[in-house]
């Protein structure tokens, strides 16, 4: 199973900043957003 927390650690190590930490939005789906060094907002998704 993919691990959103591990991916957040990976992208922050590459220079991204967590905008919204991983949280459950229902049905076991986790979402998070990060901002990359160019100020783009990227979303991460994990279904359990």
Q: Tell me the structural class.
A: alpha+beta
Order of helices and strands: HEEE
Q: What strand line-up does the widest sheet have?
A: 1-2-3
Q: Which radius of gyration do the C-alpha atoms yield?
A: 11 Å
So what's the oligomer here?
Answer: single chain
Number of extended strands: 3
**Tertiary shape:** globular
Which bin fits the share of residues in helices? 10-25%
Question: What key phrases describe this protein's structure?
Answer:
alpha+beta; 3 strands; globular
Characterize the structure shown.
The chain is α+β, with helices and mostly antiparallel strands. 21% of the residues lie in helices and 42% in strands. The protein has one helix spanning 4-13, and strands spanning 17-24, 30-35, 41-46. A three-stranded antiparallel sheet has the order 1-2-3, covered by helices on one side.
């Amino acid at each position: 199973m993919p691990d959103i927390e591990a991916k957040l650690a990976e992208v922050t190590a590459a220079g991204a900043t967590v905008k919204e930490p991983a949280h459950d939005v229902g049905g076991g789906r986790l979402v998070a957003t990060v901002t990359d060094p160019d100020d783009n907002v990227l979303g991460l998704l994990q279904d359990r």
